[in-house]
Amino acid sequence: xxxxxxxxxxxxxxxxxxxxxxxxxxxxxxxxxxxxxxxxxxxxxxxxxxxxxxxxxxxxxxxxxxxxxxxxxxxxxxxxxxxxxxxxxxxxxxxxxxxxxxxxxxxxxxxxxxxxxxxxxxxxxxxxxxxxx
Amino acid sequence: xxxxxxxxxxxxxxxxxxxxxxxxxxxxxxxxxxxxxxxxxxxxxxxxxxxxxxxxxxxxxxxxxxxxxxxxxxxxxxxxxxxxxxxxxxxxxxxxxxxxxxxxxxxxxxxxxxxxxxxxxxxxxxxxxxxxxxxxxxxxxxxxxxxxxxxxxxxxxxxxxxxxxxxxxxxxxxxxxxx
Lengths: 133, 179
Hints:
The structure holds two protein chains of two kinds. By secondary structure, chain A is an all-alpha fold. Chain A has helices at residues 16-30, 39-69, 74-81, 90-93, 96-125.
């Protein structure tokens, strides 16, 4: 089955790689019954996604506090986030917060897609082919 | 075969990203964070704030029973955000950041609709930032120049304001009442 990139690439800049991988996964899972994930594979993915979502949420809740603590615009926020995004060119940091939010949304979709795929696997294993119409 | 590669690739990318982040997460340093602390007297006593305010120990506001009630399965951790101490609480599908920004309630930067409401014996503001529907911000007024902020971000469809209010109701009784 061919994996085609989805038209919406998540976030931008530094999150582009993960965003594309997530888009591909969502597209594959939604492409009509042919994509299955075994329980072991699925659990590993869900665990990785949970970790990532928790970390993103922490950065975003802190960003909210930062916007009150240093109400001088995005430049101070950029300086404070620099240790997290140390490999990124400074202009990319401006877009980091919206990019993180978008990625968080995509991870939510990916999570649902994986759970659906795990359910597909269960149905296949039990020989009920109703999802393959 | 291709599907397995996509799946394996995603696990590697995500694991790598989480690992990278864990190496660099932690105390933000930088001239701005330091100077902000100096300007605003982050220790809490310089401007006459009640010394009972645990500005340097925001995590002390949450007992382990409180954390359990919020559903936290890991202990809260303290970090520095924008030059002030913050308490980070991870709950299922959400994150709460708690800190004393060293401003009063009237200084709240409005980024979305604000509701004034009492929480226990304190006046508070609840704000839903327009730019992020998965966030909620509750500020509890303590003195004209001091408040406690709770910044919440949720995911997987969990609602942010109920979480913010639950956390606010757990910490508010421990805050001093002025006047």
